[in-house]
Design a protein that fits this description.
The complex is a heterodimer of chains A (319) and B (296). Chain A has 319 residues and is an alpha+beta fold. Chain A is 60% helix and 9% strand. Classes of the chains: A alpha+beta (319), B alpha/beta (296).
């Protein structure tokens, strides 16, 4: 208990230090590339934007490591919460005191729940702070909808609570700490990955925008999360990009592009005449809170469900 | 006589096996009650049913006037489970402080005094104490609640003889002072002989014998005499156990009155003999209507 609080504190300090170092490094890169200088001068900063976006994306990919926090909360707080008591027989000590076993479990779960919330709060605070210098640059990647979406807002509170609950329920059902820890990892990651993969199929539905092909996305730079892109014909049916040259043969001879792939530009007037358009499915920045609320609700609800199961299973034999 | 435990038809089943069945018990207040029985007889199951760690499959039980698990019962009952679970990482002082958090009427001062009186360092981690000191911490924690009923599951089974004596002495001193009821299980009959006023014998998942120790001693005698006269004895008294030699038989008998047969020598049965006799004849019951067919 004492040990795990100290370990968590050390880990959190480590995470914060790591984020500070990363932020300093990336801020240096930002100025070295010259994006703010360019934007201040009011020129065309496309190249700098692309350069910095690459660097940013590369850095933000490492934030997946933050997924360790709910996993560790589940392993070291959740799994032993009931299992270690049963393993060491101390449940027979605490459940025969004046307070009832139900109350004891409620207090213990409440305390660890609050601790998990505190961990999530530190993590969210650190991530939001980390991203501050990189917002408002007109980049899709630095938008709260992208890269760091899972590690800010209220979703981390849900995942942290679910991580704890997954560990608790594994400990309650298996009643041995170490096997419970082993099972707690997939018990957390399963729903976590499932929600991430099925996001666009969950409400709210993404917005849809169609615009003339091959124009650039008019919403570019607004911070959308684009979940799908396709080319549609005049009646709105998706068509493969490779069929464009069949529908509208190039008005110029084929030109060689890259590694010998023969491609021509389809006749743009023909494209326009056919009503061929781009179609994007996206979540605008305004969707941030609705999306977060739904994902938080999913994880918090799942946490409540498995905790109820753990409590019921643990107390079912008690008078 | 008020009773601290009143059980009727109490039973607990695990899957298809009965750990305890048809247990009807009425335990008197203000006594030291010993619960004996061979391993696996259901002693722990019975105690867990009484302290509310288990829900009965059949029957009903009231402990201190309420069902186990009732707040009133909880706060008036002290329990030390088998192997005396404590948080080994806690210091002695922290363990007692925990007692205060979990129990409203916890007598922290008395518990601390008890520790210092036994030279147990308060800042020592519980896991680092000797077996005897560890047991005393568990006892101080249970007594700190000032319970009306103290339930101990095999409290001395893993202690060395000296620690065992000290532990039982602490319990007996406390009983003399407070008059509280103690119910403890043991498979060591010698411990019971010194301490108990009341005995409950559990074997093969059933209560075989329950009674005042003095009454049991007064009612039971050891007889030795000719084998040919055993039937006559059995007709008038209850033969709990009989050992036959070539001509001689030795019997443990629950006497329904004076033994008149002059061919038998009669001596009082020790508690140990009595318990062993009942244990080795699991069908012998102390309920009066049960006639015996042990000698075969």
């Amino acid at each position: 208990m004492r040990w795990s609080i100290v370990a968590t504190a050390v880990l959190l300090v480590g995470v914060v230090v790591w984020l500070v170092l990363l932020r300093n490094g990336l801020t240096d890169t930002l100025y070295r590339i010259g994006l703010p200088q360019c934007q201040a001068a009011g020129g065309d900063c496309g190249e700098q934007l692309r350069d910095f976006a690459d660097q940013y994306r590369w850095t933000v990919n490492t934030f997946g490591a933050l997924e360790f926090l709910p996993v560790l909360v589940g392993l070291f707080w959740g799994a032993p919460l009931i299992a270690r008591e049963v393993e060491q027989g101390t449940h027979r000590l605490v459940w025969t005191q004046s307070i009832s076993p139900r109350r004891w479990l409620a207090v213990k779960l409440g305390l660890f729940g609050l601790a998990a919330i505190a961990v999530a709060a530190v993590q969210v605070g650190a991530v939001v702070w980390w991203n501050q210098p990189f917002t408002g640059l007109g980049l899709e990647d630095t938008s709260p909808m992208n890269g760091l979406y899972h590690y800010r807002g209220i979703v981390p509170f849900g995942t942290m609570l679910y991580g704890l609950a997954a560990g608790v329920v594994c400990g309650a059902l298996i009643r041995r700490t170490v096997p419970a820890m082993a099972v707690a990892i997939p018990a957390y990651l399963g729903p976590r990955v499932a929600v991430a993969l099925s996001r666009e199929h969950l409400p709210p539905a993404p917005h849809v925008l169609r615009y003339p092909f091959p124009d650039g996305n008019p919403r570019s730079g607004l911070g959308d999360r684009q979940v799908d892109y396709q080319i549609v014909d005049g009646s709105g049916n998706p068509i493969p990009g490779s069929s464009l040259t069949d529908i509208c043969p190039p008005d110029e001879p084929l030109e060689e592009l890259g590694r010998g792939t023969a491609k021509g530009r389809p006749d743009l007037e023909c494209i326009a005449a056919h009503g061929i358009r781009s179609e994007v499915h996206y979540y605008p920045v305004e969707s941030f809170w609705p999306l977060q609320a739904i994902e938080f609700g999913l994880f918090a609800g799942l946490a409540a469900l498995v905790l109820a199961l753990a409590v019921w299973w643990t107390l079912r034999r008690i008078a | 006589m008020t009773s601290v435990v009143d059980a009727v038809g109490l039973g607990r089943r695990y899957g298809r096996t009965w750990a305890l069945r048809d247990c009807t018990l009425d335990l008197p207040a203000g006594k030291v009650i010993g619960l004996v029985g061979p391993n696996g007889a259901g002693k722990t199951t019975l105690l867990h049913l009484l302290v509310g760690l288990l829900r009965p499959t059949t029957g009903t039980v009231t402990v201190l006037g309420h069902s186990p698990g009732h707040p009133q019962t909880r706060s008036r009952l002290g329990f030390i489970a088998q192997d005396k679970p404590l948080y080994r990482g806690f210091t002695v002082a922290e363990t007692l402080r925990m007692g205060g958090w979990l129990n409203l009427g916890f007598d922290h001062e008395a518990a601390t005094l008890r520790m210092t009186g036994l030279d147990i360092p308060l800042d020592r981690r519980v896991g680092k104490l000797s077996g005897g000191q560890y047991a005393q911490v568990a006892l101080a924690l249970a007594l700190g609640k000032r319970p009306d009923l103290l339930v101990l599951d095999e409290p001395v089974s893993n202690l060395d003889p000296l620690a065992r004596r000290d532990f039982l002495r602490t319990v007996m001193e406390d009983v003399a002072e407070s008059g509280r009821t103690v119910l403890f299980s043991s498979h060591l009959i010698a411990d019971l002989e010194r301490t108990c006023d009341h005995l409950v014998l559990l074997s093969a998942s059933r209560v075989q014998l329950s009674g005042d120790v003095d009454d049991l001693r007064a009612n039971h005698v050891m007889l030795s005499g000719p084998s040919s006269h055993v039937d006559a004895i059995a007709a008038a008294h209850t033969v709990v156990q009989a050992d036959y030699g070539e001509r001689q038989a030795s019997l443990l008998v629950r006497a329904s009155g004076p033994i008149h047969d002059p061919t038998f020598t009669v001596r009082p049965a020790s508690l140990e003999e009595l318990v062993l006799a009942y244990m080795s004849s699991p069908r012998a019951g102390a309920t009066p209507h049960l006639r015996l067919a042990v000698a075969s």
